[in-house]
């Protein structure tokens, strides 16, 4: 590598759609000095994704690996092809100096192969607090065990994510670097004028507006939120729930909306590329996940001044400025309904300085990570 060329960091991901992990990576990518550090992406699942065009515009390369689907039989069947593709990739890309392993379920496969071909720095990054369900979850949990043998550096998005993924003694000894899921605090900063314009654009009027930003996946549990909405409508009819995101469970949720006759109270926005503006228009943020690491969108919601009502399956570390109320999914839905109504009536404030002071502004995190990458080369 010539001195005037940037360090190439390979971000290993599933697919660069608008999920929490992917959004965090893009936040960092936009704010590093790309003349010094450049991201490339080792992606899986073999199709174009929401952030791909932006990645290419920023100078990054996207390399596709054979997909290991969420089915145990297909997983084993495609494993030899996957291993062969990894050998071919690293043999032909000696410019890769650092691997940042955001996809950890196959890290024990790609990390030793990368090191065989001369990659000196392999970062494991835990973003979750729980693994996949069923037999595939057992398989991936087994595959993840040897990661600490091959990774040179260990990251996590929260203490809880660290304790779930790494041996307790390593976490207690301070061997895990906690990397905040930081956001561009200025971009999300509460703006009363923008709020008025967005409420007009979304035709909200004076209705109570609830928002949930998440992929439609089993663990995101949006069906529960529809049940809560059904209870809210009994208390006040002037309410609308916005879902931003897509995924395999979206049709299930839509059928439930129809079952409760809530079509006039729910808006499905699909994959949303204007979350910062969307949050301005809302009155309260809700997330009913069965489990989470430290959801980026929860930080974004707080950065926009919203109060949040979330499940206790989400790490308590999400409450970074005192705007988050945690509720159990086992309490009656009327309790959720009451808490969402109450949170929507709390005064909204500019939380910009509080987010910065808590260490969740992307400018601070990006600078630290950039220096970390450079120190490794």
Rg on CA atoms, Å: 21 Å
What low-confidence regions span 5 or more consecutive residues with pLDDT below 50?
71-76
Helical region count? Answer: 17
Taken as a percent bin, the fraction of beta residues is 15-25%
Task: Sum up the structure in keywords.
377 residues; 17 helices; six-stranded parallel beta sheet; alpha/beta; 43% helix
Task: Give the gist of this structure.
The chain is α/β, with parallel strands linked by helices. The chain has helices at residues 20-31, 52-57, 72-92, 107-116, 134-144, 147-150, 159-165, 168-172, 185-188, 192-201, 222-235, 250-259, 275-281, 296-303, 333-344, 352-357, 362-375; strands at residues 7-12, 37-43, 62-64, 96-101, 121-126, 153-156, 177-178, 208-213, 239-244, 266-270, 284-287, 308-311, 324-327.
Task: Give an account of the 3D structure.
- The chain has helices at 20-31, 52-57, 72-92, 107-116, 134-144, 147-150, 159-165, 168-172, 185-188, 192-201, 222-235, 250-259, 275-281, 296-303, 333-344, 352-357, 362-375; strands spanning 7-12, 37-43, 62-64, 96-101, 121-126, 153-156, 177-178, 208-213, 239-244, 266-270, 284-287, 308-311, 324-327.
- The protein is of the alpha/beta class and 377 residues long.
- A seven-stranded parallel beta sheet has the order 3-2-1-4-5-6-7. The chain has a six-stranded parallel beta sheet with strand order 10-9-8-11-12-13, with helices on both faces.
- Strand 9, helix 12 (250-259) and strand 10 (266-270) form a beta-alpha-beta unit.
- Helix 11 (222-235) packs across helix 15.
- The model is unreliable at 71-76 (pLDDT under 50).
């Amino acid at each position: 590598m010539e001195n005037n060329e940037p360090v190439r960091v390979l971000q290993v991901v599933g697919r660069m759609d608008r999920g929490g992990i992917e959004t965090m990576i893009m936040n960092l990518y936009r704010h590093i000095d790309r003349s010094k550090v450049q991201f490339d992406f080792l992606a899986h699942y073999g199709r174009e994704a929401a952030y791909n065009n932006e990645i290419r515009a920023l100078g990054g390369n996207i390399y596709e690996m054979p997909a290991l689907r969420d089915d145990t039989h297909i997983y084993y069947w495609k494993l030899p092809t996957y291993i062969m593709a990894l050998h071919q990739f690293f043999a032909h890309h000696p410019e890769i100096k650092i691997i940042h392993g955001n996809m950890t379920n196959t890290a024990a496969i790609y990390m030793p192969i990368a090191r065989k071909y001369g990659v000196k720095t392999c970062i494991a990054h835990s973003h979750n607090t729980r693994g996949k369900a069923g037999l595939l979850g057992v398989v991936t949990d087994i595959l993840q065990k040897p990661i600490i043998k091959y990774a040179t550096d260990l990251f996590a998005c929260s203490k809880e994510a660290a304790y779930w993924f790494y041996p307790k003694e390593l976490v207690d000894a301070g061997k895990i670097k906690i990397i905040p899921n930081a956001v561009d605090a200025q971009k999300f900063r509460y703006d009363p004028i923008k709020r008025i314009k967005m409420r007009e654009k979304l035709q909200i009027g004076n209705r109570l507006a609830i928002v949930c930003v998440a992929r439609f996946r089993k663990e995101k549990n949006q069906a529960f939120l529809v049940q809560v909405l059904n209870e809210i409508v009994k208390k006040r009819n002037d309410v609308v729930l916005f879902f931003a995101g897509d995924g395999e469970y979206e049709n299930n949720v839509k059928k439930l909306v129809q079952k409760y006759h809530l079509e006039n109270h729910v808006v499905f926005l699909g994959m949303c590329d204007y979350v910062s503006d969307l949050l301005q228009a809302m009155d309260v943020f809700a997330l009913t996940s069965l489990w989470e690491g430290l959801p980026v969108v929860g930080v974004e919601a707080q950065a926009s001044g919203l109060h949040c009502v979330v499940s206790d399956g989400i790490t308590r570390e999400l409450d970074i400025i005192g705007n988050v109320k945690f509720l159990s999914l086992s309490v009656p839905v009327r309790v959720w309904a009451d808490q969402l109504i109450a949170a929507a009536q709390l005064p909204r404030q500019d939380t910009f300085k509080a987010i910065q002071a808590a260490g969740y502004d992307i400018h601070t995190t990006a600078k630290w990570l950039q220096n970390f990458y450079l120190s490794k080369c």
